[in-house]
Amino acid sequence: MANKRPDGDGLVRKRSDGRWEGRIVVGHKEDGKPIFRSVFARTQKELMDKLHAQIEVHRDVELTEGYDLTLAQWLDRWLDEYKAYTVRASTLQGYKRLVKNYIIPHLGDKKLGSITTADLQKLYNWLRANGRINEHYAKGDALSDSMVRGIHMLLHQALDAAVQQRLIAKNPTNGTVIPKNNYAPKQILTESQLTAFLEVVKQDPVWSDFFYTELTTGLRRGEICGLRWQDFDEKTGRLQIRRSVTTKEGGGVAVGQTKTKNGIRTIQLPPSTVELLTERKKKSFSEWIFHDPTVPEIPMSPATAYRRMKTLLRYAGLPSIRFHDLRHTFATHALTSGVDAKTLSGILGHTNASFTLDTYTHVTTDMQKKASGIVGSFLDEIM
Fold this sequence. Notes:
Radius of gyration: 28 Å
CATH class of the largest domain: Mainly Alpha
Distance between the termini: 83 Å
Mean pLDDT: 84
Shape: elongated
Order of helices and strands: EEEHHHHHHHHEEEEEHHHHHH
Helix content: 40-55%
Structural class: mainly alpha
Number of helices: 14
Low-confidence stretches: 1-10
Strand content: 5-15%
């Protein structure tokens, strides 16, 4: 059916409760029957203003059946039919957790077409102040800015898809004010802290090889857990990164693709790591380089590795850091030791060298200062 300009159907009336009601045609069902959008106001003038505003919103828009879906129903369909085949399983699980924990309890029962920008802004504001499920000892009930941004981005994508499917006329996330990016600062282990950590790691026969390999490669947590012996060539000292392991909701692990296509790569290992893995392979009875401590048929769980890291840090008397900070530690020490950004980018599996430079700008700035000092000293000598 051709697009039709929204129009009133002749119904503008004063209700028994004193409010004014009007409606416009915003689309048609498959059988040709009109789809109405009702508007309510306290006065006739206010109603006419609202009706004109709705006519403008729905101009050149022909909504289809499904317009009366609730947000919960649409998000469920969007995740299963649109996102399930375009994102990693772990990403899809993360989306579903956000929907279940933060969106449905507040707006799940609301019809798609009735959700406003003000509704979403109210949700974001509430989440920032009270949204944390489990109270944090330092942050209380407040949900982090990055989490609120993640929820907004999910809703923006889902409601954009609803616009494309002609379920709503416009995306109500447009116009909301969301928190700025507020990333947690990178925590880098200093040389003395690294020495203290490795001293403790050496005393752990189950985990010593794992963490030494991590600190000499900077692999992502899922990548190091996903290494198989077929990926390691002891003759050339090269290691292929081909997959990533994620922790499934409810327990267990899943083996899947790397974070990005650039994550699939081959790196050259330091001689000490080659020697360590060569000796480990002689005693191994699993296909996985780092297998589950109790079930060698399956890879190490990223969640288990994270918990063990926290324990070892505590034994070493070091501050609590994220697993990803071990990757930052490797990259920082590599740069300060003279590894160029392009080479490091390839080792880390970054999209390009500029991303690496942007990520470690604090290091490259210090290197530039050091370089300028060297150049200055050189010129002083020859002048």
